[in-house]
Amino acid sequence: MKTKQFYSHEELLDKTFGEKGTPKRAEYDMSIELWMVGQKIKEIREAKKLTQEDLGNLIGVQKAQISKIENGKNLTVATIVKVFQALNLDAKLSIESNGVELALS
Fold first, then answer.
1. Would you say residue 4 lies in a domain?
2. Arithmetic mean of pLDDT, 92-98
3. Distance of alpha carbon 4 from its chain centroid, rounded?
4. What's the per-residue H, E or C state across the chain?
5. Residue 1 lies in a domain
6. Keyword DNA-binding, does the record have it (predicted)?
7. Residue 44: CATH number of its domain
8. Nearest-10 Cα torsion for 56, 105, 34, 32
9. How many domains does the chain have?
């Protein structure tokens, strides 16, 4: 009988998208992070009892754009700032690179 090989989550990511630091893996990791930001926006929008259309009206885009944002697509810093302002949220953006940190609030 052939034995089955089991892989950890990290091993599967390495096998599928390459090791951390490779372009394909960085793209995958970024897509997951953007998706998580979108899901948090959706969670907050729903907690405030707003529809996608309501939020779209507040920031000047159509409902379809809000759907994309909540799925982590077409997310830019400018878009995130508009959404946070529309939802009346205080947020801090921290960017770290080579030991240098830039914080915006």
1. no
2. 67
3. 35
4. CCCCCCCCHHHHHHHHHCCCCCHHHHHHHHHHHHHHHHHHHHHHHHHCCCCHHHHHHHHCCCHHHHHHHHCCCCCCHHHHHHHHHHCCCCCCEEEEECCEEEEEC
5. no
6. yes
7. 1.10.260.40
8. -150
9. 1
Q: Is the residue at 44 inside a domain?
A: yes
Read off the tokens for 15.
Answer: 């096998």
Structural domain harbouring 15: 9-104
* Residue entry with tokens 């390459």: 18
Q: Which pLDDT band, with edges at 50, 70 and 90, does 22 fall under?
A: very high
Query: Tokens 């405030």 identify what position?
Result: 48
71 in a structural domain: yes
Question: How far, in Å, are 14, 24, 26, 29 from residue 20 at the CA level?
Answer: 7, 9, 7, 9
